[in-house]
Amino acid sequence: MNNLIVIGTSAGGVDALGKVLKNLSQINYTIVVVSHIGRSVDVLIKLYKRHSNLEIKEAKDGESIHKGVVYIAPAMYHLSVESDFTFSLSIEDKVNFSRPSIDVLMNSAAEVYQEKLTGILLTGANTDGAKGMKRIEVLGGYCIVQNPNEAYMKIMPQAALKLLDHPVVMTLNQINDFLKEGEFDERYNN
Questions:
Q1: I need a surface site. Which of 15, 106, 120, 146 has the fewest CB within 10 A?
Q2: Under 8 Å CB-to-CB from 46, ≥6 apart: which residues?
Q3: Among this protein's residues, is 177 annotated catalytic?
Q4: Cα–Cα distance, 190 to 184 (Å, whole number)
Q5: For residue 64, what is the DSSP state?
Q6: Residue of 35, 98, 108, 128 with catalytic role
Q7: Active site residue 10
Q8: Cis status of the peptide bond prior to 100, with omega within 30 of 0
Q9: Which of 36, 98, 103, 108 is catalytic?
């Protein structure tokens, strides 16, 4: 089983996610992103490909999860991780006023990946993702929250910090370094 990173963001997230993914090259894990953008993710994919040579693509229903890829949840669909390491999409009711919901992705990924999962929650204007981060923590995963003092909108990171027992608070540059320097892999190989 590969290690998985799930990233959630909302208001201010386009810029924040760009800084997190900037200059990433070969990675030995998978990244899955939910961003509350409300439109096609094609624009995001083109934007992020300019700053990274990773494969960045929209997640598809039934698609197998591969390491070294950044998957982005399609607009207007919840994205879940299944026990056979594939994605599923649904149009169920919004969660926290959102579809895709960060909580839906994080909860499903936590069940499958448990201690092999890292959740990262960035800037946002609602509480989506806080409960998902707590589920990641309960099942043995690692939780990183953007420092609210640098977040465009503090509500989302602050909501997670209220629920988590052992969060790691980082700036966007520190998160980027964490991903580039392979600390993620080292955490699981000790």
A1: 15
A2: none
A3: no
A4: 11
A5: B
A6: 128
A7: yes
A8: yes
A9: 36
* Residue appearing with tokens 């690692």: 142
Instruction: Tell me the whole-structure pTM to 2 decimals.
Output: 0.93
Tell me what pLDDT residue 188 has. 45
CB-count burial class (<10 Å; 0-12, 13-18, 19+) for 26 = exposed
Cβ 118 vs Cβ 141: under 8 Å: yes
pLDDT tens digit sequence for 129-158: 999 999 999 999 999 999 999 999 999 999
- Specify the amino acid at residue 79: L
Q: What are the two backbone dihedrals, phi and then psi, of residue 40, each rounded to the nearest 5 degrees? A: -55, 140
Structural domains of the chain, with CATH: 4-189 (3.40.50.180)
Verify whether residue 51 is a known catalytic residue: no
Token representation of residue 163: 């629920």
